[in-house]
Predict the structure.
Amino acid sequence: MDIVLKKASTNTRMMALASEALKARLYVPGWQLSFRLNEIKHSQSPRKTSIAVAYIKDVPVAVCVSQQWYTPGVPTVAVFVRKRHRRLGIGTKLIKRVVGAKAEFEYENGVLGFVEFFERFPGAEFT
């Protein structure tokens, strides 16, 4: 299974990736990630933002968004991976692509198992 990661480096590309993630429903309705993706899609994010999307056979299966929210200089990361593609290392690859392998970052509530997932990153802290 070939996984392709695409990270945006321009506002236009960030808007396109956010739009693709929303269209593929790479979020839990009503949770912060859907709000953040819409904010990026409409280029209304005043915060420092990074986004990456993972594809398998040209189909978006996961997304990672990093934005400055709570602690100055420390990004807040949100990740969503489709259930059938979890536990394959996709979320880990996305975080490493967006914030770096040893970077300090914060994360918020998530699906069952999210704490165990984020605890594998030495610089991760629950907000």
Summary: The CA atoms of residues 61 and 83 lie 9 Å apart.
